[in-house]
């Protein structure tokens, strides 16, 4: 897939555009979130609208990227691949390929002694909950939970999240007319079997695919 075909896909769970890498603190969140989810690519030198602006100094950008992967991710991200590509106007874009990790969870250094986990949710890097990090440890290729058949109320969550970015416990209770305890147990069951993710870093916990 060439550069323009890649850009045409648009940002999403497995693709991120970055005009430039301003600091290892920031880019480490993106790299970690991709490694903790399904892997993906970062295009450095492309703005949020998908316009190729190119990088001013490819060596400097590569230095920041490698620094972020080695020193701002724990455990370090050691198997990233970097490729420099020029468009028709000789503007250089760096394509960073981040494989899905076999050593989850990874955390990013976002401040002095402040390590945090992230996963991809659509086109954003979202901080993980403690429950999600425990589940990531089990999501190595050889230790994934087996997917289970879902009933109508469980499928309702998946269908809802096809058109909404998130769902809360209260929204799910209303959606399927469940009491709080039963609704919570259902959502956690779906988390445990890898259908949805749990996030608790905001005022009200929520769930995403």
Outline the structure in words.
It is a single chain. The protein has 209 residues and is α+β, with helices and mostly antiparallel strands. The protein contains seven helices and ten strands. The strands form three sheets. A four-stranded mixed beta sheet has the order 1-2-5-4. Strands 3-6-7-8 form a four-stranded antiparallel beta sheet. A two-stranded antiparallel sheet has the order 9-10. Strand 9 and strand 10 (206-208) form a beta hairpin. Helix 6 packs across helix 7 (180-192). The chain is elongated, with a radius of gyration of 19 Å. The two termini are 27 Å apart. The mean pLDDT is 90.
What is the tally of beta strands?
10
Within the largest sheet, what's the order of strands?
A: 1-2-5-4
* Rg calc: 19 Å
Largest sheet: 4 strands, mixed
Query: How far do the termini sit from each other?
Result: 27 Å
Shape: elongated
Structural class: alpha+beta
Query: N-to-C SSE series?
Result: HEHEHEEEEEEHHHHEE
Helix content: 25-40%
Per DSSP, what share of the residues sits in E-state strands of 2 or more residues? 15-25%
Q: Regions with pLDDT < 50 over 5+ consecutive residues?
A: none
The number of helices is: 7
**Rounded average pLDDT:** 90
